[in-house]
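Any chance you could type out a protein's amino acid sequence plus the matching backbone structure tokens because I've never seen that pairing?

——
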Amino acid sequence: MKSKLLLFLLLLPVTLFAQQYIHPQQDNRQREQINPYGDLDFEQVKKLQMAQVAITCLYVDSVDQKKLVEDAINGILSKLDPHSSYTNASDTKKLNEPLTGNFEGIGVSFNMVEDTLLVLQVIGKGPCQKVGVLAGDRIIACNDRVIAGVKMDRDTIMSILRGPKGTKARLKVVRRGVEEPIFFDVIRDKIPLNTLDAGYMLNSTIGYIRLESFGATSGVEVHDKIKELRKQGMKDLILDLTANGGGLMAAAQDVATEFLPQGSMVVYAEGRTAPRQELKATSGGLMQQEGRVVVLVDETTASAAEIVSGAIQDHDRGVIIGRRTFGKGLVQRPVDLPDGSMIRLTVSHYYTPSGRCVQKPYKKGDKKAYDKDLDTRFEHGELTCLDSIHLDSTKVYKTLVKGRTVYGGGGIMPDIFVPLDTTLITPFYRQLRRHNLINDQVLKFVDANRREIQSKHKKFDSYIKNYTVHASLIAAIFAAAEKKKVTPKDEEERKKTVEQLEVSLKELIAYDIWDRNEYFRLVNRRNDILKRALEYLETGK
């Protein structure tokens, strides 16, 4: 009896709330005036809350109410589109950091080597650089809390190192060649999160910019880099958006502004309840009129990166080279919840200036098939053969200046197709990567040989021309693989894998010793999409 009374009292506010909106004597017009969301069924809202209260009060065993609610939210969202999602408070904070453009901490990038934090890079002008922490140092404690040799996970370590701006982190550091530990008092500060991976001159007139994602600072980063490259003689630009998963729509507008005439449509979005929203190029873009533009894309280019690619293509401002993009054209609105958690709810589709919806087809509730789309493309030959690409003849559009034919139906189709080269990677090499055997051994090797490599190759050009990967490193990788029973099928595969390793290991070593700009200078030497872009700019074909 007490349970029933409690249940009634708990549900009474819900019932009264619902009755304000659901009254048999109210006509439809009155209901719409009171309830702006005319199709919201408050009977179902009441039903859901009744279920939650009933389970909590009457279920045979005790229940975790927080988990119960979170599971219910996730269950509901799983029946919708593939991009509506829920994140708890801590995950929401991590999710937002790359978009806000900064976080507060000590200013290092690191990895774990044998349960010890190894500093890979010290962020320029950051707190650690100011006090003298170096790449290759091992941080073994922070504020007297030991973080080495205790099998602490990465998230916990990051929570220890990070903290509010102005707070002190006393670091205990072990450095090669120094017998005693070194102590550094680091004052935490805002650490910028740059989204621009690389920017340099490919030759005397062609510049290159690679953008990793679209965050709060992307527009400024691209603008400043274009200005810098122009001073070095740049006339034409290759904008690399391969593997760019997107980000903020406003950032896409800022980046597109650099290339499109003022007032040009960048993207528009609209949905069932979301009014049409248009984003247009503003003033101040450095390449709005001058210079040729080539955009590099592939099957992992998504969201905001597709907005920029589609806008440049629709306005005939540049040429798109690569492979069909991912096809993420759904706009999520964050719904902040009281405990810091968040629902990212799809509210509209976005469209390119010509009217193309970039979103690829999907079946509601079937996220598994959606997630396998890239595998399906590979199996059907779309990534390797132009003839395997089947364009949707019902979704034909025209570019806005030259009237060229472009296609909708999912993703941005490039103007020039570049197939994926599947001959470069052996199955044995993929196994080595899958078991993380390559990265593990590279970290250990760089840790032991950093100073030697830096002393022999004071300039990166010297490293590119003269450095040869040590046979001992390859041997260490193969030995680690053998322990995990990962072996090549025959001697031919072994030899081919060694050839691949000699190239990729040199790149990975460069990434750990220098920064991302130098890393991409090296990697791009075997970038087929970039090579095709250079060919186009040099020949016009």
DSSP finds 19 helices and 21 strands in the chain.
